Amino acid sequence: MKEVIKITFPSYSRNESFARGAVSAYAIRLDPTLEELNDVKAAVSEAVTNSVVHGYPDRIGIIELSIWSEKNVLYIRVKDKGLGIADVEQAMQPLFTTATDGERAGLGFAVMEDFCDNVSVKSAVGKGTVVTLSKKIKSRANNI
Amino acid sequence: MNTGSKLSRVEINLSDKTLTAVISGDVDHHNLQDIRGKIDYAIETSSARNIILDLSAVPFCDSSVIGLILGRKRLADRLGAAVIIRAPNPYVMKIIKLSGLSDMVEQAAKQAEQLAS
């Protein structure tokens, strides 16, 4: 049986660091290098921030974080029931952002794609967004 | 107590025409709000011509750090000041590189990073 750890939390921005912490705690089992761990933390941080900022711009909603692994591949799923993304392809373009305060660089998906092996985005307007990230962890033991 | 999720702090040092903002702790979307408010207030109330964002004490960041840099650059441009990024660790540098802002990193740090890689 696949062991999936599922955590739900409200979309307060302070929970971005909580999500990173939870993923780190799980990822340690796969014995990642510090760089791999940081890559995974950054990717999950981007996915959760997207849900906080774009999924639930005007309200606090629920974000569901699922973490599992198969052999040495770490999987992370971030799911919200927020506004959804009308054009996923456009949203994934580097520098594209709908944030209007000039403080979002539009690099969230670029970081996820660069730091993970695979990024899948499923979204429906008015229903929400599911981002699934996977990354092969090479394990420090294999590098010695 | 080190809880793993580090609280961010900003320390502002002003000497002559140089304002140095030493940022410590993780930089993410949540922490950014507080960090940028403190830095912008310091920039606006000084007459600094050089603004140094010292990232040497930032262990982790996501792409929010790019918003932090670009937002301060925009403000500095308006005031006729320059922004320099100081001493990002190799990991923070990786995010900066991804954004194409490597040219804003102070040379010494860039050399050290090249030596390390």
What brief labels describe this structure?
heterodimer; A: 144 residues; alpha+beta; 5-stranded antiparallel sheet; 4 helices; 5 strands; 33% helix; 27% strand; globular; B: 117 residues; alpha/beta; Transcription Regulator spoIIAA; 4-stranded mixed sheet; 4 strands; 44% helix; disordered N terminus
- Classified by CATH, the class of chain B is Alpha Beta
Q: Helical content of chain A, roughly?
A: 25-40%
**Got a strand count of chain B?**
4
> Spans of chain B of 5+ residues with little confidence (pLDDT < 50)?
1-5
Please report which band the strand proportion of chain A falls in: under 5%, 5-15%, 15-25%, 25-35%, 35-45% or over 45%. 25-35%
Number of strands of chain A: 5
Gyration radius from CA atoms of chain B, angstroms? 14 Å
Distance between the termini of chain A: 31 Å
Separation of the first and last Cα atoms of chain B? 32 Å
Average pLDDT reading of chain B:
88
Largest sheet of chain A: 5 strands, antiparallel
General form of chain A: globular
Please name the two chains that share the biggest interface, counting residues whose Cβ lies under 8 Å from a Cβ on the partner chain.
Answer: A-B, 27 and 24 residues
Describe the protein in words:
The complex is a heterodimer of chains A (144) and B (117). With 144 residues, chain A is an alpha+beta fold. Chain A has four helices and five strands, in the order βααββααββ. Chain A has a five-stranded antiparallel sheet with strand order 1-2-3-5-4, with helices on one face. In chain A, helix 2 packs antiparallel against helix 4. Chain A is globular, with a radius of gyration of 15 Å. The mean pLDDT of chain A is 92. Chain B has one domain: 2-Layer Sandwich (Transcription Regulator spoIIAA). Chain B has a four-stranded mixed sheet. Classes of the chains: A alpha+beta (144), B alpha/beta (117). At the A-B interface, helix 1, helix 2 and helix 4 of A face helix 1, helix 2 and helix 3 of B.
